[in-house]
Every structure is written in structure tokens, then in C-alpha cells.
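Project outcomes to date are best conveyed with an example. Our students and postdoctoral researchers have been running inverse folding experiments weekly, and each run begins with a structure described purely in C-alpha cells. The record below, which covers 320 residues, was selected by the lab manager from last quarter's runs and is presented without edits.
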């Protein structure tokens, strides 16, 4: 007989329901409108690091985030909005990832991404019953403080040397095939994230431009390098969410899609249609906005101190 029982206990499912109620109460107090957008779209995420599920024989894709549709609402004058949505990403099942998961995404009109980071802290601190204040690091500050390298200016050979010294188990042999951003990612995940205090939130912001996605890029000056105005929030070493100062220019948004599709082509990944509805909405104009997406399942794992995502959802991928 196949396994049919839920993987989460009834007590956990009750606490999950309470978490969702607490989140909705927070946004009600802040007068942020709850919205719903389609889970199926005629377009897909072009990001080469995120794979979409497609419906065979139909031009429809399960969304990896409600981002594009929510931005269409913002462009139409919705004001502040949030959504709790099921999303799908075609990745391997792991301790922290189920291909179908629940995402909280919200957008604040007129907010800077620094203001939004503070609001994320305001939401999460009571949910996780934290007593310590959050820690905030710029991407550059984190690498300099703990690894003594500048991630924005260190050349490829410097990064290779640092990875070999800090992560010897990786055994890099094909040095030329490693891109600088991949080396930075290794250092972040293997050396820096484990240093984050397990009893507090950590915010990491101002990422390299190569990781800008649909975040606004702050141009370089005589004394500073260009950076992407985006952030990630962690509970201990667990990444919970990703936020942007939203990129507003329609042509720049389309350029990001084109670059990503070219990269997908070079890597022999499926080619997806661009979301023209989203681009048309951006062409009409979206207000100055910051937005963030948080994983509800991971948040509940942190709240209940669970080790596996299957412990906080009714039915994981293998028994769905």
C-alpha cells in the first residue's frame, strides 16, 4: 500500500494555520491589500537558475513567483499589495526545498529597499519570538570582515586562491571554467552563511551587479562600485527571502530577459517566452516600489525548529 498519511503532524498544521493568520493580521494592520493572481501563465521565468513547470501541449506555465502579475497590478494603481501563493520550481527535492511550496510576496509603494528590510524585521521578529536585533551587512562588508577580500574588485585568481584556502574539500581543477560569481557563491554558502547568528535575523544587501535580476542597479561613482539594490534575509544560516528595489524601466526589464534567455541558450536550457503583458505594464509605468518574497515553509521550519521541509507541509512531492 502506498503512503497516504500527511508528513506533518496535526499540531504542526494547526500552527501553520496560525502563522498564516498572524501574517494576514500584520498586513491588515498595515493596510496592505491581499490579492490573488493566476498560478498559470502564458510566459515563464527566464532566469537560468530557476526552472518552470510547463503543461504539455499548451502554452501555460506554473508560476515560480507571482511577481510579474503583481507588478501589473501595481502599474494599474493597486497601491500596497501582498499575496500568499503556491508556486512551483523545477528543482531537486531536498531538506529545505519542495518543488511546490508556499510564498509570501509583498510590495510597498514609495518604500526604499532599506525601509522594506526594516518592515521584514518587524514582521518576522514576533513570529520567530526573537530577542536579538537583526544584523545588517552589505555584501562587500561581509566579505571584507570575514574573508578580507573585496567581492566587487577581487580578480578571478584572487577568488580562486581564496576558495582553495577556505574550501579545500572542493578540489578545483578546471579553474578557467569557474566564473567569478560562482566562486563568490561558494564562499558565501560555505564560509559566510554558517557564521550567521542562529538566534537573530541577518540581512545581506547591495549585491554584485551580476546578481541584479530585476532589482535596480545603483551606478558607480568615483569612490564606489555599481551594486544591485537587492537584499536577502536569513534566520541563522537559513535563507528565508529575497527583496529588490524594483527596476522600473521597461527597456531595462526586457534587456534582463534577453540576457537571461541568451544564457539559457548557451547552457542548452529550454527557451521560454517573455511575459509581454508584464513588459507592457512596465511600459505604462510602475511607481517607485520595493518588494520581497519569503518562503512560508522555511519560516515555519524556523519557528518550530524543524529540520526537514516535509515536516511542515501536508504532503511532500513524493506523496502528493
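After processing, the design step wrote out the following sequence:
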Amino acid at each position: 500500500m502506498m503512503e497516504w498519511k500527511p508528513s506533518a503532524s496535526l499540531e504542526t498544521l494547526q500552527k501553520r494555520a496560525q502563522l498564516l493568520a498572524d501574517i494576514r493580521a500584520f498586513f491588515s494592520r498595515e493596510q496592505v491589500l491581499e490579492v490573488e493572481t493566476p498560478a498559470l501563465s502564458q510566459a515563464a521565468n527566464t532566469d537560468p537558475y530557476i526552472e518552470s513547470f510547463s503543461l504539455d501541449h499548451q502554452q501555460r506555465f506554473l508560476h515560480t513567483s507571482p511577481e510579474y502579475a503583481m507588478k501589473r497590478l501595481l502599474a494599474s494603481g493597486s497601491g500596497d499589495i501582498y499575496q500568499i501563493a503556491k508556486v512551483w520550481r523545477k528543482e531537486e527535492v531536498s531538506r529545505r526545498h519542495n518543488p511546490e511550496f508556499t510564498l509570501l510576496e509583498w510590495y510597498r509603494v514609495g518604500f526604499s529597499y532599506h525601509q522594506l528590510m526594516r518592515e521584514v524585521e518587524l514582521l518576522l521578529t514576533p513570529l520567530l519570538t526573537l530577542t536579538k536585533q537583526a544584523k545588517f551587512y552589505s555584501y562587500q562588508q561581509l566579505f571584507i570582515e570575514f574573508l578580507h577580500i573585496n567581492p566587487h574588485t577581487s580578480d578571478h585568481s584572487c577568488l580562486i586562491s581564496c576558495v582553495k584556502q577556505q574550501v579545500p574539500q572542493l578540489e578545483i581543477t578546471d579553474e578557467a571554467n569557474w566564473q567569478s560569481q560562482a566562486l563568490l557563491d561558494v564562499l558565501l554558502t560555505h564560509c559566510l552563511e554558517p557564521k550567521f547568528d542562529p538566534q537573530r535575523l541577518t540581512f545581506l544587501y547591495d549585491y554584485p551587479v551580476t546578481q541584479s535580476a530585476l532589482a535596480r542597479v545603483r551606478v558607480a561613482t568615483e569612490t564606489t562600485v555599481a551594486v544591485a539594490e537587492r537584499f536577502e534575509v536569513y534566520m541563522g544560516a537559513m535563507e528565508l527571502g529575497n527583496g529588490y528595489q524594483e527596476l522600473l524601466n521597461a527597456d531595462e526589464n526586457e534587456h534582463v530577459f534577453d540576457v537571461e534567455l541568451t544564457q539559457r541558450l548557451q547552457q542548452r536550457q529550454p527557451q521560454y517566452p517573455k511575459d509581454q503583458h508584464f513588459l507592457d505594464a512596465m511600459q505604462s509605468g510602475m511607481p517607485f516600489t520595493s518588494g520581497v518574497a519569503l518562503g512560508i515553509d522555511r519560516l515555519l521550519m524556523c519557528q518550530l525548529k524543524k529540520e526537514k521541509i516535509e515536516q511542515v507541509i501536508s504532503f511532500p512531492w513524493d506523496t502528493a
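The two ends are 15 Å apart (CA to CA). Residues 93 and 99 are 7 Å apart (CA to CA). The training component of this project remains on track.
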